[in-house]
Design a protein that fits this description.
This protein is α/β, with parallel strands linked by helices and 189 residues long. Helix content is 32%, strand content 31%. The strands form two sheets. A seven-stranded mixed sheet has the order 3-2-1-4-5-9-8, with helices on both faces. The chain has a two-stranded antiparallel ribbon with strand order 6-7. It starts with 8 loop residues before the first helix and ends with a strand. It binds S-adenosylmethionine. One of its GO terms (biological process) is methylation.
Length: 189
């Protein structure tokens, strides 16, 4: 679902300020167990670029977002980086990657969109490719700051991925509260 909040300069600046003290370092540490350094990685929904900068130390990473405002910020801050406009659902790229990473992006997709995205992720990954995504834990969905937010539990995430991916890691972690988030790492079948 389209996320208008991330599309204006004011809201992008607000998000960058709100998120300035959080990063996905622990998630990327987990990913490193499964994806060798120097692998090619597509990051979906790079946003402020905090995780892109961590990924960039270990991987050949391409950042992406479907917000031109975030892309402008990413390109200004990282002049040597590669950033492309990609929608998480359609992933319209001809490039193929060893890994796909996102941190708190996929929860903006409806169930139907998440299924489409998973099929596209399968297509744009090399053999044995690895995905690594974080989600907010919970039930149902809501509109927050005008954004669609789809909450998930471990059991239903497993169902989404299991046809096309072997699950390597699936567990809760703490973002702001105990076990409020879920990390999934899986390998293309
Ligand atoms: C909650 S922010 C997370 C940003 C960053 N990953 C982080 O950890 O701070 C969600 C990001 O996903 C992007 N986004 C939302 N829906 C998207 C979609 N359908 N396709 C691509 N990016 C999307 C937004 O523009 C925003 O950058």
């Amino acid at each position: 679902m389209s996320a208008a909040y991330y599309k204006t300069e004011a809201s992008v600046n607000e998000y960058i300020e709100l998120a300035k003290d959080v990063d996905g370092a622990l998630l990327i540490d987990k990913l490193k167990h499964y994806l060798p350094s120097n692998s090619s990685v597509l990051e979906i929904g790079s946003g402020p670029g905090t995780d892109w900068n961590i990924l960039n130390k270990f991987y050949q990473v391409v950042g992406s977002d479907n917000s031109e405002e975030f892309l402008k910020h990413l390109r200004e801050q990282n002049s040597n980086g590669q950033f492309i406009n990609l929608d998480a659902v359609t992933l319209k790229t001809d490039e193929i990657f060893d890994g796909i990473y996102s941190n708190k992006v996929m929860h903006h997709l409806t169930d139907v969109e998440l299924n489409k995205s998973i099929n596209r992720q399968f297509d744009v990954l090399n053999t044995n490719g690895i995905i690594c995504h974080s989600f907010w834990r919970g039930e149902d969905s809501e509109i927050f700051k005008g954004l669609f937010v789809n909450y998930h539990e471990k059991i239903n995430l497993e169902k989404f991925y299991q046809d096309k991916f072997d699950i390597l890691y699936l567990d809760y972690y703490n973002e702001f509260d105990k076990d409020d988030s879920i990390l999934i790492i899986a390998k293309k079948k």
